[in-house]
C-alpha cells in the first residue's frame, strides 16, 4: 500500500522546491513523484514499471521516466543525451539545457524526453538545498537541474523508456487528445 501526499506550492519556484517541501513527510525514504499533467495509458501502470526498475537497481539510483514525443511537441519536455541499454534502461550522459523557443532538439533526431515520473532517493535533498541556496533570482530549479547536479556529484541517475503513451494535459490541444485517448481506452475495456 502506498501513501499519497499532495504538497501545495504557493510560488513558481520549480519542482525542486516542491520536493524540498515534501521532505518532512518522507522519513528519509525513497519516494516517487508523478506529475499529474502528464497522464499515461499503458498495459502495466507506469508507476509499477518504475518501481520494478528501481527494485532491479537495488534501490541505489534515481530513476526517470522517458517517452517518445512528436517532433512538434518534444521541445516542451526535458531532453537528455541518452543511450538505450537493455530492458528499456537509458544511460543518461547529460541533461540538456531548456530551450522551449527552439523547435529543434538539442541533439538531432532525439524526441525521447523525460515524461513526468521519477523515483528519488533521499540523497537528492542536499543537492536541491545547495542549488536553491545559490540560485539566481527568478530562475526555476527544475528536475533536470537537480538530477544533473546529483549526477555530477556521483549519484546514479538512470532513465527508463516506459511501455505506454504519455499525454500532456497542460495545453488545450493536448488536453483534448488525452481526453479522447482515455475515453477510447475506457470504451474498449468496457466492451
TrEMBL record:
One of its GO terms (biological process) is UDP-alpha-D-glucose metabolic process. InterPro entries: GalU_uridylyltTrfase_bac/arc, Nucleotide-diphossugar_trans. SUPFAM superfamilies: Nucleotide-diphospho-sugar transferases. It comes from the Bacteria. One of its GO terms (molecular function) is UTP:glucose-1-phosphate uridylyltransferase activity. Keywords: Nucleotidyltransferase, Transferase. PANTHER family: UTP--GLUCOSE-1-PHOSPHATE URIDYLYLTRANSFERASE. This is MobA-like NTP transferase domain-containing protein.
Amino acid at each position: 500500500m502506498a501513501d499519497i501526499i499532495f504538497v501545495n506550492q504557493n510560488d513558481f519556484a520549480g519542482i525542486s522546491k516542491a520536493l524540498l517541501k515534501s521532505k518532512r513527510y518522507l522519513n528519509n525514504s525513497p519516494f516517487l513523484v508523478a506529475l499529474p499533467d502528464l497522464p499515461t495509458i499503458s498495459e502495466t501502470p507506469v508507476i509499477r514499471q518504475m518501481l520494478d526498475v528501481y527494485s532491479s537497481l537495488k534501490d541505489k539510483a534515481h530513476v526517470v521516466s522517458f517517452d517518445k514525443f512528436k517532433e512538434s511537441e518534444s521541445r516542451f519536455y526535458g531532453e537528455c543525451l541518452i543511450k538505450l541499454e537493455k530492458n528499456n534502461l537509458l544511460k543518461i550522459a547529460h541533461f540538456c539545457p531548456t530551450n522551449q523557443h527552439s523547435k529543434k532538439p538539442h541533439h538531432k533526431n532525439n524526441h525521447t524526453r523525460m515524461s513526468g515520473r521519477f523515483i528519488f532517493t533521499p540523497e537528492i535533498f542536499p543537492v536541491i538545498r545547495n542549488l536553491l541556496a545559490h540560485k539566481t533570482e527568478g530562475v526555476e530549479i527544475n528536475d533536470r537541474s537537480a538530477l544533473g547536479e546529483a549526477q555530477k556529484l556521483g549519484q546514479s541517475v538512470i532513465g527508463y523508456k516506459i511501455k505506454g503513451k504519455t499525454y500532456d494535459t497542460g495545453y488545450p490541444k493536448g488536453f483534448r487528445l488525452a481526453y479522447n485517448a482515455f475515453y477510447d481506452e475506457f470504451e474498449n475495456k468496457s466492451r
